[in-house]
């Protein structure tokens, strides 16, 4: 079951003090940070270029065998398959469209960051990848439902919003279950708990990663403030959308259903309403069920592609 994979958790247990001194020291050294692949870096540039065309992405995909295979595989998946199979990159790109191509290129390019050679950390990284892809596809669906107007940056922000958790997991695999039990139950105390145990939190670490990799400023802000969207002054709309998608993903992954999700209690949704107004947010609210269903389907397909 797709949802059962979402509920893999690490139980918090009593333990000796977490050995994080080395981790914290390394976080000040940019050269120790994971780096985006050349493909991911080029894809991010294309995704954030308002003048980019589908042909630009097709050229990028054709030069990379892994990307070409991933795009073809996704275009022939149950989520996108038509009457006839797609057999060329150009046809696949046309079927997926600009955003679909952007998403698969970004996801495949980021796959290497979500990896660890330590078995326990590998399982946690896989759970975080599922959450990242689900949040990203939800953000895209909610963006479309509200006619908000983002052109791919909402997917990038959703994909990378919890990258700090991944870095913590990879750098301190033995300590990670105590820092972050991966229950997908987050509240106002989440970051405070991380700071109490590790002396830092995943938003701070993620922001350092984003700056070290020269990610676009809006994405940096989404990573840094998705737990506190009210603190964001530069890009409040993107941060509020990311926070809303994150909260929705957490609820569905934790409860394995949408029932009882209360958007009015979500800080991201509150700030989304403040920025967009009640009418647009009403459209977003009405689309929650269909957004979850579509995002689940697309996440399944994306997971199969990134596993290749």
Q: How would you portray this structure in words?
A:
This protein folds into 2 domains: 78 residues, no CATH class; 194 residues, Hypothetical protein af1432, CATH 1.10.3210.10. Helix content is 64%, strand content 0%. It has 17 helices and no strands. Helix 5 crosses helix 6, helix 12 runs antiparallel to helix 13 and helix 13 crosses helix 14. The two termini are 20 Å apart. The N terminus is likely disordered. InterPro entries: HDOD, RNase_Y/CdgJ.
Low-confidence segments, given as residue ranges, are 1-17
Structural class: mainly alpha
Q: Please give the share of residues in helix.
A: 55-70%
CATH homologous group name of the largest domain? Hypothetical protein af1432
CATH architecture of the largest domain: Orthogonal Bundle
Average pLDDT over all residues: 86
**Largest sheet, if any?**
none
Number of helices: 17
Outline: globular
Q: Kindly report the CATH topology of the largest domain.
A: Hypothetical protein af1432
Number of domains: 2
Rg value: 19 Å
**H-E string:** HHHHHHHHHHHHHHHHH
Q: What is the level 1 CATH name of the largest domain?
A: Mainly Alpha
Q: Count of DSSP E strands?
A: 0
Strand fraction: under 5%
Q: Tell me the distance between the termini.
A: 20 Å
Protein name: HDOD domain-containing protein
InterPro entries: HDOD, RNase_Y/CdgJ
SSE layout:
Elements: H1 2-6, H2 21-26, H3 38-47, H4 54-62, H5 65-75, H6 89-110, H7 119-145, H8 153-160, H9 163-171, H10 176-179, H11 190-198, H12 202-212, H13 217-225, H14 236-255, H15 267-276, H16 278-286, H17 288-306
Helix pairs in contact: 3-6, 4-6, 5-6, 5-17, 7-8, 7-9, 7-14, 7-17, 8-13, 8-14, 9-12, 12-13, 13-14, 14-15, 15-16
